[in-house]
Amino acid sequence: MAGKEPLVYIDGEYHPKGSAKISVYDHGLLYGDGVFEGIRAYNGIVFHLRDHIERLFEGLRVTRINVSLSKEEMANVVVDALRKNNMMDAYIRLIVTRGRGNLGLDPRSSPKPSTIIMCEPVAPAHGKEAREKGVTAIISSYRRDMVDGTTHELKSLNYIQSVLGKFQAIDAGADEVVMLDHRGMVSEFHGSNLFLVKHGILNTPTSAAGILHGITRARVLKLSEELGYEVHERDITPYELLNADEVFLTGTMAEIVPVVRIQGVPIADGKPGPVTKEIIRAFQRITQDPKEGTVIREAVAVQARARSH
Ligand SMILES: Cc1ncc(COP(=O)(O)O)c(C=O)c1O
Predict the structure, then answer these.
(1) Residue 99 lies in a domain
(2) Is 38 in the pocket of ligand 1 (CB under 6 A)?
(3) Which of 107, 117, 120, 305 is deepest in the core (most CB within 10 A)?
């Protein structure tokens, strides 16, 4: 791909990155009215593509965006975008907006949603050094919303709260920011989920704390059990967080990263712990496993067979 611009899929057509455009009247831009997914392909395997498509369609249901593609077709266009870009390792951004309407908020003025797919070479949110040494975090003063239609369970195009939280981290010289929920319980990081380890047991906040149902989080929950750990989804107080033995974050972009200092307090001895390291190693292994996703080559072959029938 060196020197060549990635191709962006917009509603059935491909455009070079520099000239890929949608209308300024798109309600995705005007109102954050849309949903999206961040997806990874590892070595020709699109990691848990089906789960991403499921989550996207759940968001589409709640926001009542009536996309014309089926789940199957949506998965196929993601694979097709990777194939067109000749990318085996990539970060993929799949976006569905309400589409072009008028300046009013009324969603009925936008009858046709827009589907956009960008594929980029992977640029992890935190690099190799962060994975080895860990990152720092502060606790945001902004609170995740109550669990209603605007909760972070919905991966909508409105990330302003996370952006404001990130500014607080930047201002404090920290890498990450922990968001609390409306009760003051720990929710998640601004763009990733949170786990803590205490006495060898893993803990992570529940949906009730306004988290995004992270695909990485779900896989890490299962993986921890496979590795023989006890795992609890439960309410976590900030006090418990600061007294954890280990803390780590999970997300498609960041994968798994140890968090070694929060609000100026070192987590245990301020170094990545053994459980986190074990889970990072095991996670790296599963990203290379064809059973953990959609194999691009196989999916392309299936599509070609279907077309020839
Ligand atoms: C707010 C938020 N929480 C958690 C996550 C992690 O989710 P996933 O593992 O599906 O990437 C993300 C990822 O984009 C996010 O934006």
Answers:
(1) yes
(2) yes
(3) 117
C-beta of 251 in contact with ligand 1 (< 6 A): yes
Measure 192 CA to ligand 1 centroid, in angstroms.
4
Spell out the residues 6+ positions from residue 94 whose beta carbon is closer than 8 angstroms to its own. 36, 37, 39, 52, 56, 74, 78, 115, 116, 117
Shared domain check, 132 and 258? yes
Ligand 1 within 6 A of 252 CB? yes
Same-domain check for residues 52 and 148: no
pLDDT for residue 1 is more than 80:
no
Distance CA 199, CA 229 (A): 11
Structural domain boundaries, residue 66: 7-120
From 155, 161, 206, mutation site for ligand 1 pocket: most ligand atoms within 8 A of C-beta: 155
Sole residue written with tokens 């669990």? 147
Q: Does residue 151's CB lie within 6 angstroms of at least one atom of ligand 1?
A: no
**Distance from the alpha carbon of residue 250 to the mean position of ligand 1, in angstroms:** 8
Q: Is residue 294 part of a domain?
A: no
The CATH number for 152's domain is 3.20.10.10
pTM passes above 0.90: yes
pLDDT in tens, 73-107: 999 999 999 999 999 999 999 999 999 999 999 99
Q: Is 155 a catalytic residue?
A: yes
Beta-carbon-side half-sphere exposure of residue 233 (alpha carbons within 13 Å) = 15
